[in-house]
Write a structure and sequence with these properties.
heterodimer; A: alpha+beta; 3 strands; 12% strand; B: mainly alpha; 7 helices; globular
Amino acid sequence: MKGKQMALREFWISVRVAARLPAPQAVVDSPRLDAEEIERVLRRSTLWLTPGAVAGFDENDFSFLPVAERTRLAKLVTEFRQVALAVSPTAPVPNDALERGLPLFRDVVLSFGLDRYEDPEALRLGKLIEQAIESDRPPELADLRFRTGLDHSGDPALWIWAFLTEEVSKNDKDFLKAAHRLRAILDPIARRVAPDRWPYLSFRPIAEPAEAVEAS
Amino acid sequence: MSLHGDLLEQAEQLAQLDPRRPKQANLRRAVSSAYYALFHLLTSEASALYAGEPGLASRINRTHNHGEMKKASAMIANDKLPKAVRPPGEGYTTPPDLKSVANTFVSLQQARHEADYDLSRTFRRQEALDFVESARQAFEAWERVERTDDARVYMACFHLWKRWDEDPR
């Protein structure tokens, strides 16, 4: 398992470095990344159009993904590699190669949900938790974000931020009731999926604050 | 009112201040106060296990350690008892109210740490309110469970979990 995590980490870093996305702020505060935004960043430079951008990919590292999602990712990486291999590292990137490679790499980046999973282990655990609640996903749950690491006393931890819908966040009473209900659902699932990590759950409204959040 | 009761009330007031544009300082202090409310509730009860005289109880109170209390709480929240007090031949299931208290203690301690020291992230008002509400629910759960043996063992674990968890000589 450790070896698998290392390989997944290598692929994660390859994609992250190649995409040259802005250094992440805390994942819970990071702005949403959509296809348009990623494309805008990728068009600034073509340095990502190299096989190295997907180095370390092994479909077997993604056994935690549903089959369809895993197959799609493998297909994207294979097709992207083919395009990247045909590009000379010393000559300007031909336009048609850029236009073929860009949507493929964009979708690889999107599949990682870099705004939602702060690290590769968070991606693995987050996907497993999302699959566990998928069939019975509470309607007030708008989004989830994940990170892993050590807590303040050095114990392994999994942070989960649950974002609640605008509807349920309109008044505090409904928000707190929904948070209470969701905690009872998410906590046992997180403990089952990641028994060696303490699950730290926080709840937020999905809507951005009406006025900018004051700096810390 | 008691210190823990006042701290809980203070946490609630801070989380409600300036609802349109809450200050991070107030939200952070709200989360921190919510943790300390629960901390002081539990340490005052645990100290009273050993002493009724206020002076002695407050000296015992000062011997509590956040890290040790977290370890004990994590153990109890995960349905575990230290080896020495584990019922022979069977598992242990923490009563739900006690589990809720222990769970909230661990979670609030981490939130308190982030609120006080982690400037890389922001707190949202309803997020802070939810932490305060968790503390309030832990207070209520504690009231229901405080007179049970399970609760007394939990409090004794604040000082003794390590000793009780060692292999017998």
